[in-house]
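Ops channel
N.P.: pipeline sanity check, posting one input/output pair.
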């Protein structure tokens, strides 16, 4: 058995809903080819002109929680 790695992936979305959809598609696609997303090494960033928009929350998809930074 051997391991394959992919890193330095950036996903973009115009809003948090789009980011959630893109992250879910990534998780599903990874599973299909035998990879898994390492939640401990995966973070997401939300940027807005309104610095208080959305608050700090983790993004939870398929029992995987991504930290907001």
């Amino acid at each position: 058995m051997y391991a394959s790695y992919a890193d330095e992936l950036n996903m973009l979305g115009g809003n948090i809903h789009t980011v959630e959809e893109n992250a879910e598609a990534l998780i599903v696609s990874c599973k299909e080819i035998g990879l898994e997303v390492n939640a401990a090494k995966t973070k997401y960033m939300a940027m807005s002109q309104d610095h208080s928009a959305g608050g700090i929350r983790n993004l939870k998809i398929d029992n995987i929680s991504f930290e907001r930074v």
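N.P.: looks fine end to end. The mean pLDDT is 79.
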